[in-house]
Write a structure and sequence with these properties.
Blueprint (H helix, E strand, L loop, with lengths): L5 H11 L2 H8 L11 E5 L5 E2 L4 E8 L3 E8 L2 E4 L1 E4 L2 E7 L11 E10 L4 E10 L1
Helix pairs in contact: 1-2
Length: 128
């Protein structure tokens, strides 16, 4: 229904007697609960991580975010939902890592709203 042309929207609004309905179809770019936002990310300032190290972090988001994850390449770890807009993580890097894993990576913090819209922030990290 979101692909209707302006003419079809006008006809529907006239037939249904509801001009607001056509406006709602035209303004479909905003999700019902608004766009999600990552307000703050607290991770260690020294982003040189070592095998066996436990990494702790906190993320503050807008109230419409229902899920946050930390992702490196194809591995992800969901953050614990502590309250409205508050998420935390305590992740221990495996104690044994093969040499080809020990290099620079990009850590992504991904927040997903209750409408399924995602936003992300990226941070460079190094795994030793």
């Amino acid at each position: 229904m979101l692909g209707f042309s302006l003419a079809i929207r006008s006809v529907l609004a006239g037939v249904l007697g509801c001009a607001g309905w056509a406006t709602a179809l035209a303004d479909s770019s905003q999700p019902p609960h608004g766009l999600p936002q990552i307000l703050a990310v607290s991770i260690p300032a020294d982003r040189n991580f070592h095998a066996g190290q436990t990494i702790r972090g906190m993320v503050s988001t807008s109230a419409n975010v229902g899920y946050v994850e930390a992702r490196v390449q194809y591995q992800n770890a969901p953050l614990h939902h502590d309250g409205v807009g508050k998420f935390s993580l305590a992740y221990t890097i495996p104690w044994w890592l093969p040499p080809w894993v020990r290099h620079d990576w990009t850590l992504q913090i991904i927040a997903r709203s209750v409408d399924g819209v995602e936003v992300k922030q990226e941070f460079p990290i190094h795994i030793h």
